[in-house]
């Protein structure tokens, strides 16, 4: 977001087809809190199971910021995972938890934060 807000090129590693599942911080904290309050000792995935490609994310960020930034690609690091998608079945079942902040809302909140941060710097 900071690249787009500054009007710099937005960097995407690889072709951007790798996926990520983004979870807004307040959802993540709520999930961790519920896990801490439970008696569960085994691992429980806390995250968002909805995937988006890195290229789609970059396109959304450029559109949200209203930037004229170009999206440029760089070589994909060899250890970069192709897919990141947590299975939150145990979180739903054991904790009654799942993320509630939609991607677009989380991006808008994050954008507001970066706009404030860049204005201070």
Explain what this protein looks like in three dimensions:
This protein has 121 residues and is mainly α. The protein has helices spanning 2-6, 25-37, 54-65, 89-95, 103-120; strands at residues 10-13, 19-20, 52-53, 71-74. The chain has one domain (2-114): UDP-galactose 4-epimerase, domain 1 (Alpha-Beta Complex). It is 45% helix and 10% strand. The model has no long low-confidence stretch (mean pLDDT 94).
Features:
globular, 121 residues, two-stranded antiparallel ribbon, mainly alpha, 45% helix, UDP-galactose 4-epimerase, domain 1, 5 helices, single chain
Q: In CATH terms, what is the fold-level topology?
A: UDP-galactose 4-epimerase, domain 1
CATH superfamily: UDP-galactose 4-epimerase, domain 1
Name the poorly predicted regions: none
Shape: globular
The strand count comes to 4
Helicity range of the residues?
A: 40-55%
Distance between the termini: 15 Å
**Mind describing the biggest β-sheet?**
2 strands, parallel
Element pattern in H and E: HEEHEHEHH
Broad structural category: mainly alpha
Quote the beta fraction. 5-15%
Output mean pLDDT: 94
Instruction: Look at the structure and give the CATH class.
Output: Alpha Beta
**What is the topology, as strand order, of the major beta sheet?**
1-4
Multimerization state: single chain
Topology readout:
Elements: H1 2-6, E1 10-13, E2 19-20, H2 25-37, E3 52-53, H3 54-65, E4 71-74, H4 89-95, H5 103-120
Parallel strand pairs: 1-4
Antiparallel strand pairs: 2-3
